[in-house]
Amino acid sequence: MFAYRDSTALITGASKGLGAAFAKELASRGMNLVLVARSIDTLHDLADSLGAQYGVRCVVLQADLATSDAVKRIVTELGSLDLKIDLLINNAGLGLTGDFLSHDLAEELASIQVNVQALVGLSHALGAKMVSRGTGGIINLASNSAFQPLPHMATYAAAKAFVLHFSEALKFELRGRGVQVMAVLPRADGDEFLRGCINQDEGRCVRQRRACGPPYFAVVRSEKVRRLSWTVQRARRHLASSSAAPQRHG
């Protein structure tokens, strides 16, 4: 069983939304926190509040994970503070809505940097230390969009599919080495999603496009249901025919 007290979690995108929710829940269990995000004032307010309420240590690190050196700077800062991370929560995320070719390339690459490269970098740097100690945990925030291509959010959905598959593979690789890995797939967060704020960093609104929204998700969902229903019915017919008249081979 994971021991929360006297352990430390690092949470990216910790200033709002799911990141702040993770922080509050872990603080209530007695876990010390390293809170990472761009909004330093918001982070300080959250850290002060959690420290006063739960008596835990809260360290604030300002970082923009869209920059290529962010992971290196975070790891360096952790070393200078002599902080050992027992639980990594890769919560930060950045999404664009609208046609892929309508965006500046720099925006698309920034989303990949946040959603994929920073996540991989932190998992590698901190995961290696966890393995050397024989204990630890990594939680990666994926999305329901990881399960299908998503027009008008092409890069975001592809990145979340990467996060899901990467997490599953890493969990297998670390089996028996004391480090647990899991991917979390939250649903789109209602109004924030509709405003074009694709969660997980700090409600970062990059671009709004009317072409993306609930109608497309409804189409995908109903189509997936139809396919699943057809597959189940076919399987049932196959099982029924097999039991009635067993097939012989050879």
Description:
It is a single chain. The relative contact order is 0.13. Strand 5, helix 5 and strand 6 form a beta-alpha-beta unit. Helix 1 packs parallel to helix 2, helix 3 packs parallel to helix 4 and helix 4 runs parallel beside helix 5. The protein folds into two domains: 201 residues, NAD(P)-binding Rossmann-like Domain (Rossmann fold, 3-Layer(aba) Sandwich), CATH 3.40.50; 33 residues. The longest helix has 31 residues. The C terminus is likely disordered. It is α/β, with parallel strands linked by helices.
Topology, please?
Elements: E1 8-12, H1 17-28, E2 32-37, H2 40-54, E3 58-62, H3 70-80, E4 87-90, H4 105-133, E5 136-141, H5 154-173, E6 179-184, H6 190-194, H7 214-244
Parallel strand pairs: 1-2, 1-4, 2-3, 4-5, 5-6
Helix pairs in contact: 1-2, 3-4, 4-5
